[in-house]
Amino acid sequence: MPVAEPHSPGAASGFPLPAIPAHARVVVVGAGQAGLSVAHHLAHRGLAPGQDLVVLDRSPAAGGAWQFRWESLRLGTAHRVNDLPGMRELGLSFETADQGRAARDVVGEYYAEYERHFGLAVFRPVAVTSVREAARASDARAAPLRVDYRRGAGDGATRGTVIADLLVNATGTWGAPIRPYITGIETFRGRQLSTPEYRSAAEFGGRRVVVVGGGTSAVGFVLELEGIAASVTWVTRRPVSFAGEEPGEASASMEGRLAAVAQQNDAAREGRVLPSIISGTGLPATARNLDAARRGVLVARPLFTGIEPGGVRFADGSFEPADAIIWATGFRSELGHLDPLGLREPGGGVAATQGRAERDPRVFLAGYGPQASTIGANRAGRLVALQVLEVLAALS
Predict the structure, then answer these.
(1) How far is CA 237 from each of CA 30, 276, 298, 330, rounded to the nearest angstrom?
(2) Gap between the Cα atoms of 356 and 378, Å rounded
(3) Which residues make beta-bridge pairs with 318?
(4) Alpha-carbon distances of 164 from 5, 24, 55, rounded to whole Å
(5) What single-letter DSSP state applies at residue 59?
(6) Hey, which residues does 313 pair with through a beta bridge?
(7) Could you tell me if 201 and 224 are in contact, meaning their C-beta atoms sit under 8 angstroms apart?
């Protein structure tokens, strides 16, 4: 079926933007995969989108973080994108999508059609700035929450508030890339950028590039830069492996995935900073990756120990000249707007069990920790939605 282009209702058409309700039973923050999954299940079970259920998304259009990925990224070379619940009734599936198109375009179009079909009434661009107590009460844990937001951008932005019984945070990680401090990082004369800032290999034509990171984004950058950059040096903090590279490794790969998810679960329950999933799963053993490894392209050096104005210095004293450093070094969960609620544990994270914050039962975290994978976000959507409905019933 034809899919309409994603758009931001009202802004482009010249019509007034719909008003965001002042009160709601549930506010969902973020309309990526986890947020849409939760919203779908809540709407399917009786909450009215745009009234009882308010979904706020800071992005300009549908598509979650995918709309900001680089143009060359294709569905066939990215992490698998799982279908949203109910998507197949639209005649859409990422399994049958055009693998030759930019992933950001396909995901954006499919998500936009999904929102329209199910009438999820996503308000965008709306950035939630803080979540706090709405008012003092004898039992603060049962009191409503005040969700402050900024709508629009630049001089035309407006501010507002929604009072909500419960909040589902589904903000993901894309807006919080991690850039580790390495001695001398501030002295580098070349360009430094993180994964969300990468657009195209063409920007680095004839340049000497160092790519830092052991995940799929780093691998994608290395492969795309081959033959375009003057040189590409790949460095990782820990040794990397390609899952399933040798006979018998497929089962080991599955064990690694299960172990990695278990580590995420443990960290989420204990409120520690979440570990990397890729460290336990290994990199995908695609034909392209394995061929590049055999050719010596995907062979990583250990992380350098210092950065100098013209390049990076390794522990063995060797020096690699560089014009650019791409930091594909992962992300942290975007939870700063929840800080007024005091949810963080001494370990730096937010303790959550099955998506519900331990320190505040009014707050749910979707797409957090072990739920962060595309399939995990879908499963979490239903789990979180059912818990939300149970709490709402108790409040009523």
Answers:
(1) 31, 12, 15, 12
(2) 16
(3) none
(4) 32, 5, 12
(5) S
(6) 306, 319
(7) yes
CA-closest candidate to residue 130, choices 32, 27, 38, 34: 27
Rounded Cα–Cα distance for residues 213 and 81 (Å): 22
pLDDT of residue 333: 86
CA-CA-CA-CA torsion sign (207, 212, 218, 222): positive
Sequence-separated (6 or more) residues with CB below 8 Å from residue 37: 84, 85, 366, 377, 378, 380, 381, 382, 385
pTM, two decimals, is 0.81
Burial 113-146 (b: 16+ CB within 10 A, else e): bbbbebebbbbbbbbbeebeebeeeeeeeebbbb
Residue with tokens 């969700």: 147
C-alpha Rg value of the chain to the nearest Å: 22
**Model confidence over 38-63: pLDDT tens digits?**
999 999 999 999 999 999 999 999 99
CB 364 within 8 A of CB 384: yes
Measured over all CA atoms, what is the biggest interatomic distance in the chain, rounded to whole angstroms?
67
The DSSP bridge partners found for residue 211 are: 234, 326
Which runs of E-coded beta strand occur in the chain? 23-29, 53-56, 122-123, 126-133, 145-151, 158-169, 191-194, 208-212, 231-236, 242-243, 283-284, 301-302, 306-308, 311-313, 319-321, 324-327, 352-353, 356-357, 363-365
Token reading at 178: 């991690």
Q: Which domains does the chain have, with CATH numbers?
A: 23-175+331-395 (3.50.50.60), 185-240+282-327 (3.50.50.60)
Give the model's confidence band at 14: pLDDT under 50 very low, under 70 low, under 90 confident, else very high. Answer: very low
Residue indicated by tokens 């800080």: 339
CA–chain centroid gap for 86, Å, is 21
